[in-house]
Amino acid sequence: MSSNSVPAGQELPPSGGFSAIRYERRLPKRGPSGAAMFAICGGIMAYGWYEVHKYLGERHEQQREKTWARIHVTPMLIAEADRDEFRRRHAAVEREKIIMKDVPGWVPGQRVYYGKRYAPDVIANIPLHQQEGFKKD
């Protein structure tokens, strides 16, 4: 033993015990709760679907307007095509008169096929520089 003659006492816990040790995580609460985030996302989606529905209604109305515009414009387009066909047919008959003037018995403008059913001529609109025999001066 030591030269001091003080007896060594056993080390004991303090009376009443040690203070409790905090071992759980105590993090500060950050951000909204799951229910709040779910509600926010639901609100955003509801607004998006509202806008989609509104756009689809506008698109439907525009499509209806376009359809009725085509219905009302169609007779004018048909009349314009008929005038163009008549003008082209008249010019073709005039060219045929000039080209076939020396052929006896040739009737300009007479149809090749005989029938009661009307069949419009198919006149290809070929640009002049793509036609056979075109010579650039």
Written account of the structure:
Helices cover 48% and strands 0% of the residues. The chain is an all-alpha fold. The mean pLDDT is 85. It is built from one helix and no strands.
Level of helix content?
40-55%
How would you state the average pLDDT, rounded? 85
Please report the total strand number as a whole number. 0
Number of helices: 1
Poorly predicted spans: none
Task: Give keywords.
single chain, 137 residues, mainly alpha
Which SSEs are present, and which pair or pack?
Layout: H1 34-99
Describe the structure concisely.
With 137 residues, the protein is an all-alpha fold.
